[in-house]
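Sequence in, structure out. Go.
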Amino acid sequence: MSTAPTPIRLHHNQVELALHELRGGEGRTLLLLHALGEASPTRVPTALDAWPGPVHALDFTGHGRSTIPTGGGYTAETLLADADAALAHLGQVTVHGRGLGAYVALMLAGARPTDVRGAVLADGPGLAGGGPSPSSPVLLRVDPAAPQPPDPYALAELSSDVRPPDYAATFVRQAVHFSGLDPCVSVSARVRPEWLTAVAGQVGVVEEPVAAALARYAAV
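Output:
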């Protein structure tokens, strides 16, 4: 019985992240960021197989083969720092994010515009988060005996993570201004929470299928 290859271990503060090489090769890497509650795929998904270069996938904190911290404390910005650690290891990348990973991909494109050569935002769990504004405080109750990963605190906290549309649009503007790419973000998701509707309406963003987006950024 074959086993999955040992991932690259990245140390980020007190967390050890798992970065998986799904395919080697020459050229710019396609970095995959998974959805809420999921983990990195064990092989390149069929929909992404046309990417001409290497493909890596990151397990976020609390997911897959990355560290599960004690006591939660998850935010999208925490996962942004995870993705930034992967970027530091890989160099320039194009990013494909699903669900929660799409939101992190957008933030990474704005935070590291010269290193992210295109971000593709696709459907998946955790895309909407907790909506555009804070709701009533809730005391989280999780089952510590639940099978892990994913960390039940990650599921509870990241599913209620606030996604203000104007905040999301700020990352687009940063990416447009500093990346030199136009467009620099592709929206492939069919589901459109308020933050993604705001992003799709920004200059420098194009709405197109995943295959078209990958072909666009592979040519950059």
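Check: The longest helix spans residues 76-90. The chain has a mean pLDDT of 93.
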